[in-house]
Amino acid sequence: MSNNGTKGDVVLMKGNEAIAHAAVRYGCDGYFGYPITPQSEVLETLEALMPWETTGMVVLQAESELASINMVYAGAATGKAVFTSSSSPGISLMQEGISYIAAGELPALIVNVMRGGPGLGTIHPSQSDYFQATKGGGHGDYHLIVLAPKSVQEMADFVGLGFDLAFKYRTPAMILVDGMVGQMMEKVVLPPQRPRRTDEEVLEQCPWAATGDADKRGRNNIITTLELDSHVMEKNNERFQETYRRIEANEVRYEEYMTDDAEWLMVAFGSMARISQAAIHTAREAGIKVGLLRPITLWPFPYERISELSRQVKGILVPEMNAGQMIEDVRLATEGRVPVKHCGRMGGIIPSPSEVLTALNSLIEVK
Amino acid sequence: MKEEIIMAGFGGQGVLSMGKILAYAALLDGKEVTWMPSYGPEQRGGTANVTVILSDNEISSPILDEYDTAVILNQQSLDKFERTVKPGGTLIYDPYGIHHKPTRTDINIIPVNAMEATFELGNPKTYNMLLLGALIKARGIVSVEDVMKGLKKTLPERHHHLLGDNEKAIRRGMELVG
Amino acid sequence: MNREDIVKPENKVVSRPRLLNDNVMHYCPGCGHGVVHKLVAEVIDEMGLDKTGAVAIAPVGCAVFAYNYIDVDWIEAAHGRAPAVATAVKRLWPKKLVFTYQGDGDLSAIGTGEAIHAANRGENIAIIFINNGIYGMTGGQMSPTTLEGMKTSTTPYGRRVDLNGYPLAITDIFAQLDGTCYVTRQAVNDAAAVRKTKNAIKKAFQNSMDGLGTSVVEVVSQCNSGWKMSPVKSNEWLVEHMEAKYPLGDLKNNTPKK
Question: In chain A, how many domains are there?
């Protein structure tokens, strides 16, 4: 849909559309993408907005996800704020490129609107790329900053947050969201339009970037991820790890709901957090004191807070749209103090609030 | 106020856009809204449905087990969603092409002869607006004025000459509920 | 005695191009890469493109370390992806010279898709394509452009078309695409060929700056190590066999006459 919201406009749009609008308004320099359900609206909306006419943002439909991610690598290597979006199979195809972006210490944003896998799978919502997103995904020791929006508003907000974090730490960030948030419409307040950085500002902000200004700079910049001397490569890795430790120390984000008096806890992200919230309402009416912790950053993961809560509650339910992935991190955080149970559906089926409630009840009964 | 609605019918009957217009109308009225479609091949002629939630407060789950109101446009959808209406809730359906009528006695069932009325009005594209008119009359969730504003927002400008036909259909739908 | 004592302005007849630095090249003696590097550095300097700004895209293959030798900004691409990388750079920085430097494994095998589509979109980039019919870096395996009957480490009895398919003249395909403005095939086996190649590179870079579309300069080149020949022998073999399959000359020239 063509909501050309201006500043302060409250509009109704899909999560995917919000991503596109927010990117233009952030002052993003470029988008490179390839169609795949359920996220094609990102590219479609950008093409319809024609930001090259207004902000000068580049939008290009590439020949494949492989090309897209390498275009993002390229744009990032020149200091520009660029991003791509895809859905699970396409993101798998991009993994080599994402590893290069991480190894090149480049800031970029990747959006994965997840669908059910493995394989070509289904086009329906899923959260089954949690491991891939949070544990590296491609080859080598690296992490992405992973943001998990639960609403269309957060889809819009996390574009700017993702870029800001990516540039702050010079590392790729990912918005990891299920197809439900991509496809659903909600009220969204779009951020005001920011101007794109001028080329001069890019040069100043990114003195490391390969902008083609070797002569002006007095030295040439080389963006490469190849280092045949293993001792130097180890040093590079140590530098990456240092960055990851700083991110872990500063950027853990989560939201709590009714945890103050909670005797039971749910940990869920994205859509599942909202579905869990509905189950919590019903459970509370029945006198069950249950709360929710929603990780907003899936990496870095809120281990510490979950560890604290595991001393307060009798058991933890982890509702996910997968076979049980985030539950492993929840278990790491709880160190075996309380039972941690998974509840979820796979292959594109969205668990209903009543299914979550049933799982909660069975956790309580077993205990 | 909180209204949880399921709208379902064949792809192409305008179920998704009916939901969108309703959501936009409620948004303009200052409400929180979610619009969650079934998507994919359904858009190409199978069954399509959309969950629309309107609320004064933040909305938690955009998908639901049961609904306050169902707007049903075909038999498959009736078979699937009749049982999901909350006791005391409302089921609006078009009897056109329905062979097995709804049987529940603990809900408010409102047949709306929208297909018939569409033929009378002469613009089949406004079919969904008849049902939307019936819905807002039956449930009082948004005003006609807000629906018209919502329609204006969602309809591409090149189709704005159709606003009159659409309003006619909405008002006719309201009359059908009586 | 050191270098300054020998090299004096009055006795200097030839000098290293300004943008070609002092690093010792890793290329084998007799390899064509060093010559093409020198030409690229000379052309950028002579056209003043380092002042305007130049971003070069390095491949995976023997030229993977090209960035160590020519002092412009470089981005090292994943294997085959150089044209996608160049696409984004040129679109984001349209006033800069953007070119890729790729071998036949990189461009005509793993990177065919990116190369064809960048050229078909008419990206305003130059592609320098070094075709020596072999994967040099990884130890002499067959590439798509390996000639029929040619022995490589993966075709130890010679390339058989029934097993390995036909040698791929990918530059002919570039010439068919509407997005390309200049497609040529050159060599660096003798002085005359080197001169022609330099002119071709110059033309390709000018096209990139003028926004005329994609230029492809194939350089049929020697890999005496991979071919297991002496440098002199490899030059003869190149003329006799490589040029028979990959004849030199312009395949397309839509560059306006100056």
Answer: 2
Domain count, chain B: 1
**Within a domain: residue A217?**
no
Q: Which domain covers residue C34, as residue numbers?
A: 27-253
CA distance A322 to chain B (A): 17
d(CA B84, CA B67): 6
CB contact under 8 A, A30 and C91: yes
Contacts of C57 in chain A (CB under 8 A): 74
User: With an 8 Å Cβ cutoff, is C50 touching chain A?
Assistant: yes
The chain C residue lying nearest A98, using CA atoms, is C78
Nearest to C72 by CA among C102, C40, C113, C116: C40
Best-predicted range by mean pLDDT among A46-50, A120-124, B115-119, C7-11?
A: A46-50
Q: Do A38 and B61 touch (CB under 8 A)?
A: no
- A192 and A87 in a common domain: yes
**C229, C140 contact by CB (below 8 A):** no
Q: How many domains does one find in chain C?
A: 1
Same domain, A189 and A263: no
- Residue A11: name the closest of B126, A52, A1 by CA: A1
Query: Using the beta-carbon criterion (under 8 Å), do C50 and A214 form an inter-chain contact?
Result: yes
A60/C84 Cβ within 8 A: no
Of chain A residues 284-303, which have a CB less than 8 A from chain B?
A: none
Measured distance CA(A139)–CA(A141) in Å, rounded = 7
Position A247 in a domain: no
* Best of A213, A226, A227, A232 to mutate (most C CBs within 10 Å, chain C): A213
- Domain carrying residue B58: 2-177
| DSSP secondary structure, A213-280, as one string | -HHHHTS--EE------HHHHHHHHHHHHHHHHHHHHH---EEEES-TT-SEEEE--THHHHHHHHHH
pLDDT above 60 (res B43): no
Q: Is residue A157 part of a domain?
A: yes
Give the confidence band of A2 by pLDDT, cuts at 50, 70, 90. very low
Q: Do A272 and A357 belong together in one domain?
A: yes
C205 domain-assigned: yes
The answer to whether residues A194 and A275 belong to one domain is no
Provide, as residue numbers in chain C, all residues whose Cβ is less than 8 Å from the Cβ of A66.
Answer: 81, 84, 113-114
Host H or E run for residue C251: strand C249-253
Q: Mean of the per-residue pLDDT values for chain C?
A: 96
Q: Which partners does chain A have (≥3 C-beta pairs < 8 Å)?
A: B, C
Domain assignment present for residue A346? The answer is yes
A344 touches chain B (CB under 8 A): no
C51-87 residue pLDDT tens? 999 999 999 999 999 999 999 999 999 999 999 999 9
Q: What is the CATH number of the domain that holds A29?
A: 3.40.50.970
Domain containing A320 — which CATH number?
Answer: 3.40.50.920
Query: From CA B65, how far away is CA B85, in angstroms rounded?
Result: 9
Distance, CA of C90 to CA of C96 (rounded, Å): 7
**CA-based torsion, C201, C205, C211, C217: positive or negative:** positive
Residue range of the domain that includes A77:
10-199
Distance of residue B53 Cα from the nearest chain A Cα, in angstroms:
10
In the complex, which subunits touch B with 3 or more CB pairs below 8 angstroms? A
- CATH code assigned at B38: 3.40.920.10
CA distance, residue A271 to nearest chain B CA (Å): 7
pTM (global) more than 0.90: yes
Nearest chain B alpha carbon to A351 = B63
Structure-token pair, residue B119: 């033929």
Contact list, A224 vs chain C (CB under 8 Å): 58, 67, 74-76
Shortest distance between the Cα of C200 and any Cα of chain A, in A, equals 22
Predicted local confidence at residue C2, as pLDDT:
83
Residue C13 lies in a domain: no
Q: How many angstroms away from the CA of A244 is the closest CA of chain C?
A: 24
pLDDT tens string A293-351:
999 999 999 999 999 999 999 999 999 999 999 999 999 999 999 999 999 999 999 99
Residue C115's CATH number: 3.40.50.970
